Amino acid sequence: MNLLIYKTPEELNQDLADYIIKVAEVSIEENDRFNFVLTGGNSPKRLYNLLATECKHRIDWEKVYFFFGDERNVPSDDENYNGLMAKKELFDKLEIAEDHIFYINTTLAPEKAAIEYKKAIDNHFKGSDPIFDFILLGMGDDAHTASIFPHTKLVKNEEATVSSVFVEKLNTYRISLTAPLINKAENVAFLVFGENKAEAIKHVIGGEVKDFDTYPSQLIDPIDGKLTWFVDEAATKLLES
Ligand code: 6PG
Prior knowledge:
This protein has about 240 residues and is an alpha/beta fold. The protein is about 30% helix and about 20% strand.
């Protein structure tokens, strides 16, 4: 695991964008495509904007396929729909073709949406192992990632798949990639900044004890791939130096 600590989110985003571009160039060179899983939440907004503006000409975007690590069980025009933020900040600005974007279909019931999304992934990978080139993850202040929330069934799901989950604390369903599917990826990067994440970072990165049920982000440990944490100083202030 590689831990990169930055003074500011701006410096973090610049380096993370460069890293994404570097991985994309290699993937496109080797496989003529880059399978990129986006995170939801607020943290990536500036990064997506950076990719779509300053970095616009550094990737052959026509070779990029976008997926989502998770989705909220809301309509696609709802401001809480992760796909909508990505559409506004990234896809529309880069004029990404619709057939290169794999939204999670929340017009379906959560369980059906999860089944359909996994089918779409398997179809994209033509039945071969769904090994994404890059999975970008955020982390909540409760140490959840994607929609793998503490004390939910997703923590114990050992299948590399997509699952729906009812999140008691939010009183809502979510659809999410499972940790085993995330752990198949070639590259996984966490994007975490802000003081409110410091307690979670202390347990997930600094914690001696593995407690997946309480700190689900501890589950992220790529089998063969690379894990990098892009964090700022505020989020790591409780880490023992
Ligand atoms: C989501 C995300 C989720 C997110 C964390 C952090 O759908 O909300 O996928 O896992 O990354 O909740 O969210 P912030 O970046 O808004 O702190």
